[in-house]
Amino acid sequence: MYRQMVVWTLVSVVVLGVANGALASSPTQTPASTQAVEMFQAIRAGQIEVKFIPKDAREASVLIKNKTDKPLTVKLPEAFAAVPVLAQLNGGAGAPSSTTTSTTQALGSGWGSGMPGMMGGMPGMGMGMGGGMWNVPPEKIAQLKVPVVCLEHGKPDPRPAIPYEIKPLEEFSTTPGLREVLHALGSGQVSQRVAQAAAWHLQNGMSFQELASKQLRFANGARCAYFSPAEIRAAMQLVAKAKQQAETHPQPTPSPSPGETAGQN
Questions:
Q1: Residues with Cβ within 8 Å of residue 261, at least 6 apart in sequence
Q2: Which of the residues 34, 210, 221, 256 has an alpha carbon 20 to 30 A from that of 67?
Q3: 46: alpha, beta or left, given left = phi > 0 and alpha = psi -120 to 50?
Q4: What is the pairing mode between strands 72-75 and 35-38?
Q5: Rounded Cα gap, residues 35 and 57, in angstroms
Q6: C-alpha 100 chain-centroid distance
Q7: Spatial separation of the C-alpha atoms in residues 60 and 52, rounded to whole Å
Q8: Burial track 29-49 (b if 16+ CB lie within 10 A, e otherwise)
Q9: Which residues pair with 152 in a beta bridge?
Q10: Do the beta carbons of residue 123 and residue 60 sit within 8 Å?
Q11: Beta sheet of 35-38, edge-to-edge order
């Protein structure tokens, strides 16, 4: 296992999973009595609760809890972001206060100084789920395993102990082509590594020459290329295609996050 200092924005593809309940396998199996809801609208309406738990820099789990007594068909977004929730600590006691705030970390802001063990701030995460519908039974939890990519090169890897909040991608970044790259990953059109190279190029301005020269460093002093020549070529093709698609598809307008909406009521 290696350690690289990078900031991860995650792209997700739904792979599998049922936790404490069951998921329908396709929209065609949706019962007629099931209500169809868009994920972020359902969060704001209090119909569902969504948790994002990163396993590492490449994979995460998304848990969707149906808080109602009726089955729901949740429409997943093509791409979205997950950002760390910053817990404000009380004085020297070290206990979390009742107030929490969230930040995308897109500008490099870090954790509060009272948070132990944090160096350099934790990353925000961006994901592409490829869209689709998932059935969640009443008062049950659906668990989706998703591949992820980093959108902020230079920060520490995410880990399960750090809480994250899911947000629409446009609240994290409106970089042209990024949504299309995440969608390609989420729909299984490209590998995680190809999408990662493309995301760093678009979001962090890293040239393909820089990406090609990036190395992994191991504890025994050995080094190897982070990306293969084939992965760099595929990432270049993906970026060119994503930019073309972005020119013909307008970026969504950022909408209020669930927390912001709740605060206005």
A1: 44
A2: 256
A3: left
A4: parallel
A5: 34
A6: 20
A7: 7
A8: ebeeebeebebbebbbeebbe
A9: 7
A10: no
A11: 35-38, 72-75, 133-136
Cα–Cα distances (Å) from 149 to 124, 196, 239, in that order, read: 10, 5, 15
Query: Judging by beta carbons within 10 Å of its beta carbon (0-12, 13-18, 19+), is residue 82 exposed, middle or buried?
Result: buried
- pLDDT above 50 for 106: no
Span 116-132, pLDDT tens digits: 222 224 444 455 555 57
Tell whether the model's pLDDT for residue 100 goes beyond 80: no
Specify burial of residue 73 (Cβ count, 10 A radius: 0-12, 13-18, 19+). middle
Which of the 8 DSSP states describes residue 3? -
Other beta carbons less than 10 A from residue 215's beta carbon: 12
Using the Cα atoms of residue 162, residue 167, residue 173 and residue 176 in order, give the sign of their dihedral: positive
Residue with tokens 């990163």: 54
223, amino acid identity: R
| CA–CA separation, 139 and 22 (whole Å) | 11
pLDDT in tens, 59-81: 888 999 999 999 999 998 888 88
Mean pLDDT of the chain: 73
φ and ψ of 206, to 5 deg: -80, 130
What stretch of H or E contains 43?
helix 39-44
Among 39-43, 50-54, 147-151, 169-173, the range with the most confident prediction by mean pLDDT is 39-43
Higher pLDDT, residue 250 or 99: 250
| pLDDT at 240 > cutoff 90 | yes
Quote the radius of gyration of the chain (alpha carbons, Å).
Answer: 19
CA–CA distances in Å: residue 152 to residues 34, 171, 173, 227, 249 = 39, 15, 11, 17, 24
Q: What is the average pLDDT across 53-58?
A: 85
CB count, 10 Å around CB of 92?
6
